[in-house]
Specification:
seven-stranded mixed β-sheet; about 25% strand; alpha/beta
Amino acid sequence: MKFLIVGLGNIGNEYAHTRHNTGFDTLDTFCRVSNVVFDENKRYGAIAECQLKGHTLTLLKPSTYMNDSGKAVRYWLQKENIPIEQLLVIVDDIALPFGSLRLRGKGSDAGHNGLKSIQQMIETQNYARLKFGIGNDFNQGRQIDYVLSRFTDEEQKLLPERFEAAAEIIKSFMLEGLERAMNKFNKK
């Protein structure tokens, strides 16, 4: 079985390790613990591939910027002939408290431009997403500044464990399936 695991974020040093790039940072953690590295020079993004218990994972960090993530997702789904049911998108979520992780099998874009682009390009809302809570401690009208900001020192101390927990959810999604992974991790 083949899977496409997509971490959403924006390329460039000015966006590195911001709240909006939790998808990138989650995949970086997954690669570190899986002992694989990204090839930064692939079409529409950085790609890493690994094998886990007979499954092939294609890990993607789109280079299209958040608002055009769907181009990269559609391209790699088609190129690798991966069904939508084996797609998992990792995305930041301001509706969840910092560090919360929620696995969902479908849903609206909830105003997230990365998800909106994906849904437009693959023409469905029915794909799995792992939502990484970044909190919502911002003043009205300052959402963009907030999601593009770095985590506080206190939050940064907690991030490695949260990224490792997200990596475990990715493994569970792939090895046990969406429903079992949701039942296992969403109640925590």
